[in-house]
Amino acid sequence: MIDRQTFHLRTDGEKAFGYAQAVRSGSTLHISGSLSVDDAFQPAFPGDMSAQIGSAYAAIKRTLEAFGATMANVVKENIYVTDMDAFIAANGARIVHYAGLDLPATTAVEVRRLAFPECMIEVEITASL
Q1: How far is CA 116 from the centre of its chain?
Q2: 8 Å CB contact between 102 and 57
Q3: What is the rounded distance in angstroms from the CA atom of residue 120 to the CA atom of residue 105?
Q4: Of the candidates 101, 90, 84, 19, the residue with the CA atom closest to the CA atom of residue 52
Q5: Number of domains the chain contains
Q6: Of 29, 59, 62, 40, nearest in space to 123 by CA
Q7: Is 125 helix (H, G, I), strand (E, B) or coil?
Q8: Alpha-carbon span 8 to 5, nearest angstrom
Q9: Which among 12, 39, 10 has a CA at the least distance from the CA of 22?
Q10: Angle CA 22–38–25, to nearest 5
Q11: 127 - beta bridge partners?
């Protein structure tokens, strides 16, 4: 039997799209791509990369907290953006979430679009618990 636990942050929206916000398997936590959406699962801060970064990382922190973890537990992040230049310019809004911590291994990729056209960034996390 697999030692596994799932977590839903925005249950209705996640179930409508067919996924869990996070799955813990053993001591590894996999957090699904976090977008800048509100609790009603609607896009937040259209056109504002910095605000969308803050919103995505706020959701990530809420998810980590549900497992008794913090940003210090993050070992890997995959970042998908629709505008790499805007992301690079706003990257300070991401780095602030790692202030005083070791930075995780990170991959950033520009994509044509995300689940909602208004969303400019999606962040997927792996954390060690």
Answers
A1: 15
A2: no
A3: 21
A4: 90
A5: 1
A6: 59
A7: strand
A8: 10
A9: 10
A10: 5
A11: 29, 74
Q: What is the pLDDT of residues 59-77, one digit of tens each?
A: 999 999 999 999 999 999 9
Give me the CATH number covering residue 89: 3.30.1330.40
The structure tokens listed for 97 are: 């979430």
User: Which pair of structure tokens corresponds to residue 18?
Assistant: 């067919």
CA-to-CA dists, residue 37 to 4, 104, 117, 126, 127, angstroms: 26, 24, 12, 20, 22
Amino acid at 52: Q
Q: What is the pTM of this model?
A: 0.94
Structural domain harbouring 63: 4-128
| Mean pLDDT, rounded, for 25-48 | 96
Q: What is the H or E stretch that residue 65 is in? A: helix 49-66
